[in-house]
Automatic annotation (TrEMBL):
Alphabetized Pfam families for the sequence: DUF58 (PF01882)
Classification via InterPro entries: DUF58 (IPR002881), vWFA_dom_sf (IPR036465)
Protein name: DUF58 domain-containing protein
PANTHER family according to UniProt: BLL2464 PROTEIN
Start and end residues of each DUF58 domain: 42-250
Length: 288
């Protein structure tokens, strides 16, 4: 992709997603996530009606009269976007690839953070960390994130969510609002998401295509695994083959939803041909 074409694409995504974040998501994002963190401000003398649980016993003992800790909302948040760039993201039977929806949702969320004067960072992952952009504020920074989402070429086609979550836990010492955007065609990440979910406010956004749920009867079809490159001849006439295909997909979805929910994380699923605007808004409202 040449620079001119890339800039045009960035601009197009900026116009579309910024309008969404300005008019719709700004307020919703703000009310959903603002004030989740409380930071210690000062101690003052106990007043009638204060919560006894906020008494600072060390200061109280020193001055022989009760003092309470005063906390205030942490106004500034840090958003981390974690986008899956493995081979399976370049799949789509409708008008858009999963990768394009991931980019649009990420851009919408990034502009919502920008509007609220929050920092935003990016992790692109496959079965390794492909790119890490530390959280920063500002429009130039958000545009750089969009540019990377559009043109980044991963070294690997495979997926390992556990590796990505481990990396996040190591680099982000303070609590962050984390959005993981993937098709979640992976397993063995329950241990890492449990640890990540305790430390951060995590939402998994599953992007999928209807053809991943079931395959039609098309006779003998040559299929390629987007992540391993393996090519197979598949008999889609066979009812057993079609059932096994659907079962595999259902198991991955169930695993994702169970593991995320049990770890205290949010879950959201969006098909490429559906309106992600409605899905995100509904999710923010439920959480607000």
């Amino acid at each position: 992709m040449d620079t001119k074409e890339l800039l045009k694409k960035v601009r197009k995504i900026e116009i579309k997603t910024r309008r969404l974040s300005d008019h719709i998501f700004g307020g919703e994002y703000h009310s959903t996530f603002k004030g989740r963190g409380m930071t210690f401000s000062e101690v003052r003398q106990y007043q009638f009606g204060d919560d006894v649980r906020s008494i600072d016993w060390n200061v109280t003992a020193r001055y022989n009269e009760p003092y309470v800790k005063v906390f205030e909302e942490e106004r500034e948040l840090t958003m981390m976007l974690m986008a899956d760039v493995s081979g399976s993201e370049l799949f789509g039977t409708s008008n858009q690839f999963k990768k394009e929806i991931v980019t649009e949702i990420s851009a919408t969320l990034a502009f919502s953070a920008l509007q609220n004067n929050d920092k935003v960072g990016l992790i692109l992952f496959s079965d390794e960390i492909e790119l890490f952009i530390p959280p920063k504020k500002g429009k130039t920074h958000v545009l750089r994130i969009i540019r990377e989402l559009l043109e980044f070429q991963p070294k690997s086609n495979k997926t390992n969510l556990a590796v990505a979550l481990k990396f996040l836990t190591n680099v982000m010492k303070k609590k962050a609002i984390v959005f993981v955007l993937s098709d979640f065609i992976d397993d063995d990440y329950q241990q890492t998401i449990r640890i990540t979910g305790k430390k951060h406010d995590v939402t998994g956004i599953r992007i999928y295509d209807e053809r991943e749920e079931s395959i039609p009867n098309l006779g003998m079809v040559q299929m390629q695994d987007a992540e391993t490159g393996e090519v197979r001849l598949v008999n889609t006439q066979s009812k057993n083959v079609r059932m096994a295909y659907g079962k595999y997909h259902q198991e991955r979805v169930r695993y994702f939803e169970d593991v995320f929910t049990k770890s205290g994380c949010g879950v959201l699923s969006c098909r490429v041909d559906e309106s992600y605007v409605k899905k995100l808004l509904g999710y923010f409202k439920r959480r607000g």
